Amino acid sequence: MVPRRQISLFDVSDVENPREIAKYEIGDRGTDSPVLWDHKAFLFDRERNLLALPVLVAEIDEEQYPEGVPPFAYGDFVWQGVYVFNITETSLTLRGGITHIENMEEFLKSGFYFYSDYDVQRALYVEDMLYTVSNKMIKINNLATLQEVNRVELP
Asked: Is the CB of residue 154 less than 8 Å from the CB of residue 137?
């Protein structure tokens, strides 16, 4: 079994026996997020049922390991941006992702690899707009549809 990062919701109404009620698995070994060391990278709003967090997704190509994936194998980076979830007391659903990297395939071939100045580090919202921030860009997306509204390139 390949280890994954995951987000879990727990029912803690009985604190002696917490119960996982929903989860979402992200990538394979090598997947990372600033949320793991910086609580400010995490966006949550109960009234909007909104959860957003930056992620660097790595995936293991199991075909490369015909005799099984070794326990030390790391995945290749395939995506970086913000995952946006609908979250309620009983469910966690991925709505979509927003990235600042225009052409992920070309970016990966370029040798820049991850981490880059286009790594999304934060998400915030103002009214009905979701803002994502990297060192080189601020992108504005409609919070309801996640469609891009505008962007500002930074020097």
From this structure: yes
Write the CB contacts of 66 (distance below 8 Å, at least 6 apart in sequence).
none
Q: How far is CA 126 from CA 10, 19, 38, 112, 139, in A?
A: 29, 34, 22, 32, 13
Q: Which helix (H) or strand (E) holds 105?
A: helix 104-109
Q: Can you tell me which residue has the tokens 């992108």? A: 139
pTM: 0.88
* Model pLDDT for residues 91-111, shown as the tens digit of each residue: 999 999 999 988 776 666 655
Which H or E run contains 141?
Answer: strand 137-142
- Span 28-62, pLDDT tens digits: 998 999 999 999 999 999 999 999 999 999 999 99
Query: CB–CB of 41/34 below 8 Å?
Result: yes
> Contact at 8 Å (CB) between 29 and 73?
yes
